[in-house]
Amino acid sequence: MVPADLEAAARIVAACTDGNVQHQLELLERRLEGDAPGSALLVAELGSKIVGFGRVAYFEPAADAPANAAPAGWYLLGVNVEPSYRRRGIGRALTVARLKIIESQAPVAWFFTEATNQASIRLHTDLGFRENTSDFWFPTATFGRAGGILFSIRLRG
User: If we measure between CA atoms, which residue out of 126, 27, 128 comes closest to residue 77?
Assistant: First the structure.
């Protein structure tokens, strides 16, 4: 992803969440600035149109994090596909590309989602992710009544 892609990515996230492109753009810019080396935002293009994006980031819980903090490691964060382009394999392609990035950094990748997000759970379990726990804390994650689920996959070793 290049800086010029951020606005398109923000539009996609806004369409999937709060509708506020400016807010999503600010969040993406802050995430890019604050991410550890090796972190990445990837875009999916069809022709010259950006139709999706996904993020890879390293997370390490702070010393004062709750006991059930998600483990340190590389995480797949925030796949978003423009609604009219969903169910075409774009999310899967972005996930596979992000796993390749993580594989060069670590033997394990992590991912979490809302417990009710069956499309995301199916995508990731089809790729080999296994459920770890539903009792975890991640600083930027909020979940609805059903809660979240933390998954992992061994990539090597």
Answer: 27
Architecture of domain 3-154: 3-Layer(aba) Sandwich (3.40)
Q: Give CA–CA dist 64/46, Å, rounded.
A: 44
Per domain, the residue ranges of the chain are 3-154
pTM > 0.85: yes or no: yes
d(CA 70, CA 73): 9
Residues 78-121: tens digit of each pLDDT: 898 988 998 899 999 999 999 999 999 999 999 999 999 999 99
Contact by Cβ (8 Å): 120, 86:
no
